[in-house]
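Table S5 (text form). Sequence records supplied for joint modeling of the two-component complex.
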Amino acid sequence: MNITKTLKVAILALARNKMRSFLTALGIIIGVGAVIAMVSIGQGAKKEVEARFNSMGTNLLFVRAGSRSFRGISGGTGTVQNLTPKDADAILEADAVLNVSPSVNTRAQVVYGNKNWNTSIYGVGEKYPDVRNWEIEQGVFFDESHVRSGSKVAVLGSEVNNNLFEGADSLGQIIRVKKIPFRVIGVLKSKGEAGGYMNQDDVIVIPYTTAQRRLLGQTDRIQSIDVAAVSADQTDEAMEQISEILRIRHRIAPGAEDDFNVRNMSEIAEGAAESTKILTVLLGGIASISLLVGGIGIMNIMLVSVTERIREIGIRMSVGAREQDILLQFLTEAVTLSILGGLLGIGLGLGSAKLITQFSPMKTVVEIGSIAMAFIFSGSVGIFFGFYPARKASKLDPIEALRYE
Amino acid sequence: MDNHFLLRFENLERVYKVGDSEVRALGGITHSIAEGDIVAIMGPSGSGKSTLMNIIGCLDKPTSGKYFLEGEDISTFDKNRLARIRNSKIGFVFQSFNLLSRTTALENVELPLLYSNIPGKKVREMAYRSLEKVGLKGREMHKTNQISGGEMQRVAIARALVNEPSLILADEPTGNLDTTTGNEIMEVFKLLNKENKKTIILVTHDPEVAVVARKRIYIRDGLIEKVEE
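The corresponding structure-token record, covering 634 residues in total, follows.
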């Protein structure tokens, strides 16, 4: 019996019990639909995180103080503070580097009138908005003279601005950080959350010199240097040049390890996207269980079907069906059910993803890969759960089967 | 070995194991049936005639002894080859018709051809011709649950014929039919034997059916009791 004939026989058999076939396939429909919808939520989250990181600038590099190895024991990143503003000036000389901003940061309670807010304080250079590709919503950013003189001026992230001023005009107002008064000269444009765990807008930006003197009580070291490469394509080149410059400045012997490290934005973005992968796997895993249950449903119905059709199997055997013909017939029925279920399930999944995007704040992305996966998976479910009943049918004794009432 | 014999049994035995004890259904049958013959195998229930029929029909294999069909020793064949023989050389007609429910007469008749290598177009043609032979022209699309018992048995005969088998094996073919319809069915068998030179084996305990046969083999306790020509 060839494939077309087998398929025809299978479809006829399924069509004879339309309602039952539909209910059996429903398990697969819901299973596949759930997998696609759930994975689309995970993928949507990933895409959003990537987009947020891209908005920070794809040409961005971070230089952080590295670890120091002392008598064979290496400390972690940042265990030494060996970067200076002069390092930043030197890096700016590199061909592939467009802008740099020294950076120190701390957390502090910020007070305005009777309101207060705990937030990150970034001490940066005047090129910071250029480096981070960040626009000013109101007012201005501080300039070189503010940095040189260590002025007590602050630019607020939109989150901080909203929380302290609640819509009132903040420009020119005085806020206090660790009891030191700062004049608000600008407000940054909102950037949104990056991956949910860090809100880029929950920040106050002040000159790094001010932060060193007033908040950290030291004047020399900086924690990191933010660097903008000339273009996204030249980040690798910039990284090399920065390494070279810093190794010379820090007098690191050839072959010895760097006492700093340089990372680019795409590496950091990948790290964040990794965490959304766990979300995808988790959601997909939960949804797969319903697909599994659907498969068990198929097995159940196929077993009932085999018992019901023992006579038919006997008749087919008596006219010359071989074991493998019967096996193939019942297997084809199971696979046809699961594949039809899979196709309808893909429709359901796509529809659900669309509804989720429309009626909830979650973004969804359906990738062709997850559709293909769900489809292949549903077919395999049919083969896996259809095999046992099909084998049972094929092993029937024709004489017994013909006599079966 | 004589070639004009379609079937030949040599000391056929069939022993069933039931728990620890053995049941001897056939105790050594030796006989030959000629091509184009019409034969009745008779005997009371429990005589072993059903066992013999199952072996002749290649649904079962003898425990020992030889069964030649068209000169081939079938008793050595494996399950798949037996299925092939059933498909190409044997047509079954059962007491309870054994048609697929809720399918058309045509689909039932096509069934054996689905398991052969005959291309789809020819399958339809052969099924139509076979139904015409048993007098069901115009009833091809009737569902099996919409036709009478006599018509169902005609469909079953058409199905048995469709593969041009060398042997038609009928198990109590009139058992579920009234006398008139039963006689009509027997006429169909007679006609097939006369005009198409089909070899027909009727397994029955009904003497009226056996009358049609040219040879009657009486089975009792797994042995041939007597043969009437």
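Note: The mean pLDDT of chain B is 91.
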